[in-house]
């Protein structure tokens, strides 16, 4: 593996799928071969001290009105790190603006770069002609391109990517093997869940995740299962509007907002759930789910999942094998899927078990990091 500088705007302690993806892969690369450049944030010093590889924290974007583009001084930062660390290639965490920096150093210093793409960074380009033009040039000159799903793979082909340069390295999970205290009884008491069937969603409270679509389906589900509880994990900008919907339609006895779930409690939330549900949407601005690691996490605990027929979720969930795929804009279809799994416990157990076996066999960070090492060699 060539000595590599990962430049990314998404990295822990920041939360989100991209941050987790990059963190888990970096942790399994040879420590002397990977260097990270990421923005400084609250808690970053504590996180960095716990890692075996070198992390630089710098301010990426200028606040001066006299400097344009805002990330121009990033060139100087990267040049210094390349010289100090003996960097042989750059790993681009986001195609824009980081890809522009990498392209510059390929032209000036002949340093190759590898792209790591996810979903929003490429799908939302369609709304910007200039950005699309620049992204096409970056894609053309990348040595290799890594992406997270067949959906994003096809999007890259439409942007002119050479198929021979492309490889899919999906997210993974080891959550089932990490030590964690058993909090199931405590969580059940906290939300009054004894004797209830439990739906669970864990995902940032943004429109794309489909929380509102689940709420719309609840009245039909409750007709048959009045003992249902819906746990909404995490936090985000849509929290207030979701709470207002719950109040307006008298769902307060059935819906519980947990806030951000602590890492040590996360396995227990998965264990108490009967079904994991997250019917993600493809928004008008192009925002879409690129993969969905939470589906794998739920499957890892042998839970059946309900996801949507959009974006990259088809790589994370196999319809009628590890879960059910639905039209997220059809509350009746969502309700039907939930009732189907609650009605047929044998089917529910079968999908959960098959999902668990698939995760154990195909989606470990150790296996994915081996693929990344190969791509960076």
Automatic annotation (TrEMBL):
All residue ranges annotated as the Glycosyl transferase family domain in the record: 184-358
Pfam families: Glyco_transf_4, Glycos_transf_1
UniProt domain Glycosyltransferase subfamily 4-like N-terminal: residue ranges: 15-172
One GO MF term attached to the UniProt entry: hexosyltransferase activity
Superkingdom per UniProt: Bacteria
SUPFAM superfamilies: UDP-Glycosyltransferase/glycogen phosphorylase (SSF53756)
The protein's name in its UniProt record: Glycosyltransferase family 1 protein
Organism of provenance: Candidatus Kerfeldbacteria bacterium CG_4_10_14_0_8_um_filter_42_10
């Amino acid at each position: 593996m060539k000595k590599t500088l990962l430049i990314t705007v998404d990295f822990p302690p920041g939360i989100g799928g991209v941050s987790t993806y990059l963190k888990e892969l970096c942790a399994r690369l040879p420590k002397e071969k990977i260097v990270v450049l990421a923005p400084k944030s609250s808690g970053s010093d504590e996180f960095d001290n716990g890692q075996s590889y070198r992390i630089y924290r710098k301010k990426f974007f200028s606040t001066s009105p006299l400097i344009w583009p805002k990330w121009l001084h990033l060139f100087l930062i990267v040049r210094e790190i390349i010289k100090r660390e003996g960097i042989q290639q750059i790993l681009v965490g986001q195609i824009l603006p980081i890809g522009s920096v990498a392209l510059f150093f390929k032209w000036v210093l002949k340093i190759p770069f590898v792209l790591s793409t996810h979903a929003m960074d490429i799908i939302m380009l369609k709304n910007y002609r200039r950005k699309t033009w620049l992204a096409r040039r970056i894609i053309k000159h990348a040595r290799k391109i890594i992406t997270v799903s067949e959906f994003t793979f096809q999007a890259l082909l439409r942007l002119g990517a050479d198929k021979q340069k492309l490889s899919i390295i999906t997210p993974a999970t080891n959550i089932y093997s990490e030590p964690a205290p058993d909090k199931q009884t405590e969580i059940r008491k906290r939300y009054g869940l004894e004797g209830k069937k439990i739906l669970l969603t864990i995902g940032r409270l943004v429109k794309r995740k489909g929380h509102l679509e689940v709420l719309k389906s609840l009245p039909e589900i409750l007709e048959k299962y009045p003992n249902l509880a819906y746990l909404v994990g995490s936090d985000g900008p849509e929290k207030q509007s979701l709470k207002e919907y719950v109040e307006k339609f008298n769902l307060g006895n059935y819906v519980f907002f947990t806030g951000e779930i602590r890492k040590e409690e996360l396995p227990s939330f998965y264990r108490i759930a009967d079904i994991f549900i997250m019917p993600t949407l493809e928004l008008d601005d192009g925002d879409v789910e690129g993969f969905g690691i939470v589906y794998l996490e739920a499957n890892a605990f042998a839970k059946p999942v309900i996801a949507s027929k959009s974006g990259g979720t088809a790589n994370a969930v196999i319809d009628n094998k590890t879960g059910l795929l639905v039209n997220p804009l059809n509350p009746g279809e969502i309700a039907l899927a939930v009732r189907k799994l609650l009605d047929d416990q044998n089917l529910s157990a079968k999908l959960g078990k098959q999902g668990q076996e698939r995760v154990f066999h195909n989606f470990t960070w150790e296996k994915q990091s081996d693929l990344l090492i190969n791509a960076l060699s």
